[in-house]
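go over this record:
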Amino acid sequence: MKVLKVLILAMAVQFAQAQVNCVTTGDQLGPYFKWGAPYISNDTLAPGVLDTTRSLELTFYVSYNCDTVNLDTLPSTYTLQLWHANDSGAYSNVDGNPNNYHYRGELELTGYSTTLHTTLPGIYPNRPSHIHIKSYLTDAHFTDTLITQLYFEGDSLILFDGAINMPERWIRLDTIKDRGFKGEFAFGLSYIVGVEEAAGPVERLYPNPSNGSLHVEMRTAGVITVANLTGQIVHQESLEQGENRLELRHLPKGVYLLRSEGLAKRFILR
């Protein structure tokens, strides 16, 4: 059975090359996300590679406007929260499986690229092998959260899955003799806010953190949305040019993104 799972990726035996995606499409968070996954300090998801034939070495990049970004030039590094099934297709911390956070972790990307070591995810019933990702610039003021799922080019089960329509999320793999697989992937961000933010309709918002009563100064009238860090829109309202007040006391405490015309500002409710 273990050999059969590896053979599903046989079509993907080719030289890997970085896929510089202009935009990486989002996906559902899925039912198996769990808070509290440990920080990955050695670039390896615990418990590591138990079967060398399933070893998986992934090099991650971040791209914006179709070009790779050197994160050391930005005010923040990029954080990935990753989780995937084990060799048998089971997720830790769910359905009675051990609460050991196996193949769950938080990885901080720096510089031009960061390499992660893990094992090839097993086949979750009737689905191609995949990795769940929740990613964001560590200082969330400068980006939106991207929630997505990554697949592997050549996986025969893609033909029978919604992933067939998402080639921008397929990772091309190369084989490493006697050591499994390797591949590269660039997270294409739709926008990075911050320096360019002056062009947006939102002049500023304050106080930040806020107790729920938020002042928003608008350069022009427009519709704003408020989303939590899972991407769920929790408030929408039309604001006038100039000073506006948002009453958000009904929302739980936490970090939110206020968006208007594709640009975002982070604020905290406490």
